[in-house]
Design goal:
alpha/beta; D-Maltodextrin-Binding Protein, domain 2; five-stranded mixed sheet; 10 strands; Putative ABC-type nitrate/sulfonate/bicarbonate transporter; signal; Ca3427-like_PBP2
């Protein structure tokens, strides 16, 4: 497949703006394929050979590779860093759910997730660990009565209003519009204990001990220019986000104050991966001393 255009999976949210700039201003020759259902769906697409690159949430990528039952080579490897700052996950319930008064009232409830293994699923365990809802050394961790798989953000919002799920977690600014509309209600928030977005590549393009495919190197060079453009042209970024991505101008402006993209997207800090694995093991998402280890998850030139 050498020479073919890269197929890049991404989440069509405000974070995708530097990728948009790389494509429109800096000649990135790639097909950008939106995955509104998030990282878990991209894991499946990478393994099915439907995309070559994924830009998604750190915890979703690492959980996907770290499970002990992963078949074959896992289908992808971490190759780059897309966002340096943590992600603020807003915790939401239905607008008319008076019985849900606080984060503590979510214990044992039904959590809505986009997919099993997605960021919204993984962060449920991180939330449970933070609040002491996990049973130490239990073979099966069940802080919630059910994980209700709902695929899309719209389905998640509908489910907490219908009672199909009690709560879900999604990025703060993407959720905020629906708080303002009165469609859903905010219960609280939790930040990822790691930098929030990573770039992964199919193992067909990123093999241990071999140079990265030249198209991935070109992607890093063009993304770096997209990030620089984002930093140097904030008003253009705000206009793009508020015109094309369903955010208000005020929310786009506020989000811009909270996010930091790396000046060089190539590479992943080993300690970010090992720290994330450690927290996911503590939270019961990954099993200690089983599954792929941190150094095997990353391919670097």
């Amino acid at each position: 497949m050498s020479g073919e255009r890269l197929r890049i999976g991404y989440v069509p949210e405000h974070f995708s703006t530097p990728l948009h700039f790389a494509l429109t201003h800096y000649g990135l020759d790639a097909e950008a394929i939106p995955f509104p259902s998030g990282t878990g769906h991209m894991v499946t697409a990478l393994r099915a050979g439907e995309i070559d690159i994924g830009i998604g949430l750190t915890e979703g990528w690492i959980a996907g590779l770290g499970k002990e039952e992963v078949e074959g080579d896992g289908g992808y490897r971490l190759v780059g860093t897309y966002v340096d700052t943590p992600l603020c996950w807003a915790i939401s319930t239905g607008a008319q759910r008076p019985e849900i008064t606080s984060i503590e009232s979510l214990k044992g409830g039904k959590i809505g997730v986009s997919r099993i293994g997605s960021g919204s699923y993984v962060m449920g365990f991180v939330l449970a660990d933070k609040h002491g809802w996990l049973v130490p050394n239990a073979s099966t961790q069940k802080p919630f009565s059910d994980n209700v798989v709902l695929n899309t953000f719209a389905n998640l919002r509908n489910a907490v209003n219908s009672g199909e799920a009690d709560f879900f977690m999604w990025e703060h600014f993407t959720s905020k519009k629906f708080y303002d509309l009165g469609e859903i209600r905010r219960v609280g928030e939790i930040y990822t204990p790691w930098s929030s977005w990573k770039i992964v590549a199919s193992t067909k393009l990123a093999k241990q001990g071999e140079p990265l495919d030249a198209r991935i190197k070109d992607l890093f060079a063009k993304l770096d220019k997209g990030v620089t453009h984002f930093n140097e042209n904030p008003e253009e970024a705000i206009t793009y986000i508020s015109t094309n991505l369903d955010y208000t101008e005020a929310d786009a402006r506020e989000w811009m104050k909270t996010v930091k993209f790396p000046s060089a997207t190539e590479g992943v800090k080993p300690e970010v991966v090992s720290d994330c694995i450690g927290i996911l093991q503590k939270a019961g998402v990954l099993a200690k001393d089983k599954g792929m280890q941190a150094d095997a998850m990353v391919v670097r030139d």
